[in-house]
Design goal:
Helices cover 61% and strands 5% of the residues. It contains six helices and two strands; from the N terminus they run αβααβααα. Helix 2 crosses helix 3.
Length: 121
């Protein structure tokens, strides 16, 4: 991925190119966010990073993404009867019921009628 953005083969990419990479990863950092990330891994302040520093930033962003997913998973766990912090348990019957509802619930006729596009007269 790095080489695709290092068009001049200098061994470095700048903030706009890093921002583009992060946007391709479905993130939406501001220019200031990108500068802060770059400064964390390369405090020299030239706003260019090497391939190794690029990898550090990507690894850090992946970890942050997983943390967000973990938070959502914990919220679901608590909603189904678990305790905060991952303690407790979810009753098997409740989990089976939720899975069956997700897998086998078909939309009602009312849901279908409200999701149709209006017909042109």
């Amino acid at each position: 991925a790095f080489a695709a953005f290092d068009k001049d083969n200098s061994g470095f990419i700048d903030a706009p190119k890093l921002k583009k990479v992060l946007e391709m990863m479905e993130q939406n950092p501001t220019h200031e966010d990108v500068i802060m990330m770059m400064t964390e891994v390369a405090p020299e302040g030239d706003h260019k990073i090497s391939c190794d520093k690029f990898r550090e930033i990507l690894e850090d962003q992946k970890k942050k993404s997983f943390k967000a997913e973990d938070k959502e998973m914990m919220q679901a766990f608590i909603a189904m009867g678990g305790e905060a912090g991952g303690k407790g348990c979810i009753k098997t019957d409740k989990l089976k019921h939720i899975i069956n509802c997700l897998l086998y619930t078909s939309p009602s006729p009312r849901d279908l009628s409200t999701s149709r596009m209006p017909s042109s007269a």
